[in-house]
């Protein structure tokens, strides 16, 4: 079985995206908030079957761990009430996709974060999504300000109530920012990669996993700049008197394979232990075009992994085993189906 751990619902029905535009406009003008539109199952099927589901099958994968559009989370837009309403609708839509296509999609939830709200206020929505909607994890935004970075690091105790609930529910989080409102940082080209790299450095500087040895966090997009600069981070850990990275960080942190060229995948696998790598394509995400050098889609990442000289055992880990280990609720769901 091939499990893609990083997929987004970026092809939502038009009434859904229209609602968001109306919600933002109403907040900005002080008008009455819009009612959520009726969206049929057929509208959802149409947006998924011709897009993510088709690509999933065409590219040889079986299941996607599916979450709301990351750039659309918009935690820096509106107030906490706006974020809560929008988040619940996003998560309910993901649930509907997983109910319509249970063999191919399983849910990961968005959180109702807001720069003015403590992360503890997101616990109730996490619980709802895990216990009622069957989500197997969440997307956690380390910078709900949208590129201004005015909050505290992920290692600060302000995050601890949420981490405690994650451990209790036995779910991991993918560290994933949303849109950028800072003109210095292009959203997918800079802000995303900055956040991935920043999160790793925060984990290196802190001692989060001494307090949460069972916490599991996925850094997407191949770990940002980390694999390319692994020697720098090993050296910084040594200078700071930290244990080796294999003990200090990498017992709890995992990278995905959303790297869109062969040399990048080669670097990732040459540096990071295979037990810490989960197959992913970010379908459909930052890069949707066809690579003129190969004739294949940039985000068809399975091709890059297929080209690696991996043992059958390691290949099985990357494509399936690691995801089932990092997402135990996914593993239990698959076992319940005899998979």
What is this structure's SSE topology?
Layout: E1 3-9, H1 14-29, H2 41-49, H3 52-58, E2 63-68, H4 80-100, E3 105-107, H5 123-131, E4 138-140, H6 160-169, E5 173-175, H7 187-205, H8 208-211, E6 217-219, H9 230-239, H10 245-248, E7 253-256, H11 262-271, E8 277-278, H12 302-306, H13 312-326, H14 328-336
Parallel strand pairs: 1-2, 2-3, 4-5, 5-6, 6-7, 7-8
Helix pairs in contact: 5-6, 13-14
Describe the structure in your own words.
- There is one protein chain.
- By secondary structure, the chain is of the alpha/beta class.
- The chain has a single domain, classed as Metal-dependent hydrolases (TIM Barrel).
- The chain has helices spanning 14-29, 41-49, 52-58, 80-100, 123-131, 160-169, 187-205, 208-211, 230-239, 245-248, 262-271, 302-306, 312-326, 328-336, and strands at 3-9, 63-68, 105-107, 138-140, 173-175, 217-219, 253-256, 277-278.
- Strands 4-5-6-7-8 form a five-stranded parallel sheet. A three-stranded parallel sheet has the order 1-2-3.
- Strand 7, helix 11 (262-271) and strand 8 (277-278) form a beta-alpha-beta unit.
- Helix 5 packs parallel to helix 6 and helix 13 packs across helix 14.
- The N and C termini lie close together (9 Å).
- 44% of the residues are buried.
In short:
This protein is an alpha/beta fold. The chain has helices at residues 14-29, 41-49, 52-58, 80-100, 123-131, 160-169, 187-205, 208-211, 230-239, 245-248, 262-271, 302-306, 312-326, 328-336; strands spanning 3-9, 63-68, 105-107, 138-140, 173-175, 217-219, 253-256, 277-278.
């Amino acid at each position: 079985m091939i499990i893609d751990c990083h997929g987004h619902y970026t092809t939502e029905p038009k009434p859904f995206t229209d609602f968001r535009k109306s919600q933002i406009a109403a907040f900005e003008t002080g008008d009455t908030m819009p009612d959520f539109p009726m969206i049929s199952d057929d509208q959802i099927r149409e947006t998924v079957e011709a897009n993510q589901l088709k690509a999933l099958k065409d590219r040889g994968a079986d299941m996607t761990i599916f979450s709301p559009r990351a750039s659309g989370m918009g935690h820096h837009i509106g107030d906490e009430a706006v974020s809560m309403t929008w988040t619940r609708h996003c998560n309910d839509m993901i649930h509907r996709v997983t109910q319509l296509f249970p063999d191919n999609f399983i849910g990961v939830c968005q959180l109702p974060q807001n720069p003015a709200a403590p992360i503890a206020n997101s616990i109730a929505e996490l619980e709802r999504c895990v216990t009622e909607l069957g989500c197997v994890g969440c997307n956690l935004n380390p910078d709900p300000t949208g590129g201004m970075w005015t909050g505290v690091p992920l290692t600060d105790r302000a995050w601890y109530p949420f981490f405690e609930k994650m451990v209790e529910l036995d779910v991991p989080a993918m560290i994933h920012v949303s849109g950028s409102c800072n003109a210095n940082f292009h959203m997918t080209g800079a802000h995303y990669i900055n956040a991935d790299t920043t999160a790793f450095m925060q984990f290196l500087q802190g001692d989060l996993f001494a307090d949460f040895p069972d916490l599991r966090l996925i850094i997407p997009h191949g770990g940002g700049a980390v694999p390319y600069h692994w020697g720098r981070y090993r050296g910084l850990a040594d200078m700071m008197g930290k244990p080796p990275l294999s003990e200090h960080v990498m017992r709890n942190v995992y990278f995905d394979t959303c790297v869109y060229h062969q040399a990048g995948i080669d670097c990732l696998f040459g540096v990071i232990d295979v037990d810490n790598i989960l197959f992913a394509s970010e379908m459909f995400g930052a890069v949707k075009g066809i690579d003129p050098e190969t004739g294949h889609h940039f985000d068809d990442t399975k091709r890059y992994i297929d080209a690696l000289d991996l043992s059958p055992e390691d290949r099985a880990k990357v494509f399936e085993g690691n995801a089932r280990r990092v997402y135990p609720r996914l593993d239990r769901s698959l076992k319940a189906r005899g998979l």
